Amino acid sequence: MQWYIKVLKNYIGFHGRASRTEYWMFMLINAIITFIFTLVDDFANTKEMFAGIYGLLTLIPLIAVGVRRLHDIGRSGWWYLISIIPFLGSLILLIMACFKSEDHENRFGPVPARSYEYKK
Asked: Which has the higher per-residue pLDDT, 113 or 73?
């Protein structure tokens, strides 16, 4: 949960780097919350109102953490636009998000804290 909150606190931070742990923990918790809101919408018959509002509120942090993840592997954030290509673009981004982080400082900043180094 700490990684999810860290991403939300850095709401519009497109600079710097995001480790694999930060990225994937945010994506996991975001998917779980979206699923819960979808269930609530189904039971309340609100036609995906809650899930839609939540999706809009987390759209910018989702893009920002994706851009920072690309920075962590040494790619420009503009690579995120490849997701415009249906299916193939998202698949390429998924594969790139799985790449190992660069173990040294790169042009986007210092190495991000690892999960065992994170302090509140």
From this structure: 73
Task: Please give the pLDDT value at position 114.
Answer: 65
Show the domain range for 81.
2-97
pLDDT at 2: 85
Query: Alpha helix (H) ranges present in 1-120?
Result: 2-9, 20-44, 49-57, 59-72, 88-97
Rg (CA), the chain: 15
> Quick check: is 23 in a domain?
yes
Cα dist from 61 to 14, 45, 46, 55, whole Å: 9, 28, 25, 10
Amino acid 39 reads L
The pTM for the full model equals 0.86
Question: CA 76 to CA 106: how far, in whole Å?
Answer: 11
What are 54's two structure tokens? 């939540």
Residue 65 lies in a domain: yes
CA dist 84 and 101 (Å) reads 24
pLDDT digits (tens, 9 = 90+) for 63-94: 999 999 999 999 999 999 999 999 999 999 99
